[in-house]
Specification:
Order of helices and strands: EEEHEEEHEHEEEHHHHHEHEH
Bound molecules: zinc ion
Number of helices: 10
Helix content: 25-40%
Mean pLDDT: 94
């Protein structure tokens, strides 16, 4: 049975059609810009599903934000008009498909990496997406963890510095203020303004406030000590959050996805170096591989399609 997976991002909506038995052999794909309002999004998701998979009876949708266990969108940081909207019911009505599943986008990406990507073969996996913010999905004993309400895995809002910078969620010092692409930009500007990042400032055109993550990674690739120090600082914050999560969840593998993965060759070795000192009994516990994601920008859509197919299978069984 074929299923459609749709990943709603901040700027684009990506849809794929696949056969769940061979999830990496995409049978169809399309992408469109993310519309403004909620009604526009519902219509667009339905049209996308009709275009790429008119024959598919199952449609999965991954969306950034809090989605409850009934597939209702409670809130999303970038989709303010979609507050307390029963997306699943409205999409089921609009698409006419037998199975419609809506889940958090990071959960979808985690399922994809565990079933078909970098964590395949591991029943217990933590998949962390380091992008503008941080998303995470947890697979335990082969099952995606949703929690009582459906909100499990919001690792980006774990507070790691109670006096840290404010977060859009209303708290202070959330992990994603330090360990995401946004966090790298902030660490870089702090270093640039303190005169410790001249090579990256030069790449940014001479203005310390214009320094972004890509300037730091470019300077670090040229072995600039200031840029390497910022990468080390970023790696510390990533490793600290991972250590907290490993103390609680004990995954067999950690997969890192998202925009920062483009610099995985620079960042991940530093994370691996720091991790054993930050996790409990780091020298005594089995090594937890920390690896880059394999499915790239399609992870969320592939996971949404797999989730829809698995849900349809359970309903049928
Ligand atoms: Zn937060």
């Amino acid at each position: 049975m074929r299923s459609v997976g749709i990943d709603v991002g901040g700027t684009k909506v990506l849809g794929v059609l696949l056969d769940p038995a061979q999830p990496l052999d995409g049978l169809g794909e399309d992408r469109v810009p993310t519309p403004e309002g909620g009604d526009g999004l519902i219509g667009l998701v339905a049209e996308l599903a009709d275009r790429i998979g008119p024959e598919a009876s199952a449609v999965g949708v991954g969306i950034p934000g809090l989605v409850n266990r009934r597939g209702q969108m409670i809130m999303g940081p970038h989709l303010r008009k979609l507050r307390n909207v029963d997306l699943t019911a409205r999409l089921r009505e609009r698409t006419g498909r037998a199975t419609v599943v809506v889940d958090n986008d990071a959960n979808c990406a985690a399922l994809a990496e565990q079933r078909a990507g970098a964590a395949r073969g591991f029943d217990n996996a933590l998949v962390v997406t380091l992008g503008t913010g941080i998303g995470a999905g947890i697979v335990i004993d082969g099952h995606l963890v949703h929690g009582a309400a459906g909100f499990a895995g919001e690792a980006g809002h774990m507070v790691i510095d109670a006096n840290g910078p404010p977060c859009p969620c209303g708290k202070r010092g959330c992990w994603e203020r330090f360990a995401s692409g946004t966090g790298l930009g902030r660490l870089a500007r702090d270093a640039a303004n303190a005169g410790r990042l001249d090579a990256a400032v030069e790449l940014a055109g001479g203005d310390p406030e214009a320094v972004r993550g890509e300037h730091v990674t470019a300077a670090a690739r040229a072995f600039d000590p200031g840029a390497l120090a910022v990468i080390g600082e970023l790696a510390h914050w990533i490793a600290l959050g991972l250590a907290n999560l490993v103390n609680i969840l004990d995954p067999g593998i950690i997969v890192i996805g998202g925009g920062l993965v483009e610099a995985a060759d620079l960042i991940l070795p530093e994370v691996r170096n720091r991790f054993p000192d930050l996790v409990m009994a780091g020298a005594l516990r089995p090594e937890v591989p920390i690896v880059a994601a394999e499915l790239g920008e399609r992870a969320g859509a592939i996971g949404a399609a797999l989730l829809a197919a698995e849900t349809a299978g359970e309903t049928a069984a």
